[in-house]
Amino acid sequence: MIDLRSDTITRPTARMRRAMAEAEVGDDVFGEDPTVRRLEEETARLLGKEAALYVPSGHMSNQLAIYAQVNSGDEIWAHRSSHILANEQGATSVLARALPRAYDDPRGYPDHDLLEQWAAGSNDVHRARPRLICLENTFTGRVVPLTEQQRVADFAHALGMSLHIDGARLWNASVELGVPPSEAASGADTVSVCFSKGLGAPVGSALAGSAETVDRARRARKLLGGGMRQAGIIAAGALHALHHHRDRLAEDHRRAAELAVALDALPGMSALARTNMVVVTTPPDEAARWARAFTEHGVGCVPIGPDLIRLVLHLEVDDAMLDQAIKRIAEAAAAARR
Ligand SMILES: Cc1ncc(COP(=O)(O)O)c(C=O)c1O
């Protein structure tokens, strides 16, 4: 099976396993794990923020960002199909007890008119207090342009709101734009990044922001039972990924572009590459059936809409596997068309 369902499926490389086995560790709940500390400091520095907190997952990182910045009953604005609103079990309403307000824009970020409209009368006593805007970058592989991100950040700050970026794949945005991660995270008060997606580490994400916000998030992580003891074992995998797997994301993007060109030429489908993801459009309402056919022909994929299939390039896919995947999908598509 050539598994293109997600970049989360990668297993640690031999060198990464060695780094993990040899990690210096201590009790991180006492703040004594040198590897976790190093990971947090390096991540904060890379992202241009004061501090960072190592957490078990991107989900927890996003929710801690919200919990640390929002009071019960405040509004958070996020995309309708963002991970925060669509794939975290409604946790914003359970943990921070925030009121989610969903924007819906195919580009992944809200336009100026909508923000103006939502901000109008926000001081009205009848209204919930708008407190946080969330962006996702990349958004299904699509990079949010830096000028748009800055525009949303400026808008949020002018209104006394904060900006959180779910940057599970911010590393991909940084490589695609050719800018340092700190620039890709610019304007954000908090940013969540994942080590276990394109970077290929087995576990973990980080929340970066001001020292004060990260302190609040650290307390909330403990509240949720997320304090980890000798976490340096897994943090070492994340550090290794940070040092050795960031630049190679460009290879995933190059392979995604090649895959999209090859699939786009096949009858019955069109395909678009966005950073490390390829989105295939099938005939109407055929995504589930075509995705089954791809899988039966040995290429793992995920249907993400009635006629959309997602394929993700990652660390375990080389050029020979890419050629194989293209051949198998061509056979699968021919079978599905019959
Ligand atoms: C954009 C985005 N944010 C957050 C997450 C959550 O990450 P985790 O699975 O580590 O909780 C994911 C997971 O795929 C994601 O795609």
Automatic annotation (TrEMBL):
GO cellular-component term (any): cytosol
Cofactor(s) needed by this chain: pyridoxal 5'-phosphate
Example GO biological process: glycine biosynthetic process
UniProt entry keywords in alphabetical sequence: Lyase, Pyridoxal phosphate
GO molecular function: L-allo-threonine aldolase activity
Domain Aromatic amino acid beta-eliminating lyase/threonine aldolase, first and last residues per copy: 3-280
Pfam families the record matches: Beta_elim_lyase (PF01212)
Superkingdom as given in the UniProt entry: Bacteria
Residues the record lists as N6-(pyridoxal phosphate)lysine modifications: 197
Family (UniProt): Belongs to the threonine aldolase family.
PANTHER family per the UniProt record, alphabetical: L-THREONINE ALDOLASE, L-THREONINE ALDOLASE-RELATED
Protein name, as recorded: Low-specificity L-threonine aldolase
Species per Swiss-Prot/TrEMBL record: Nocardiopsis ansamitocini
Originating gene: ltaE
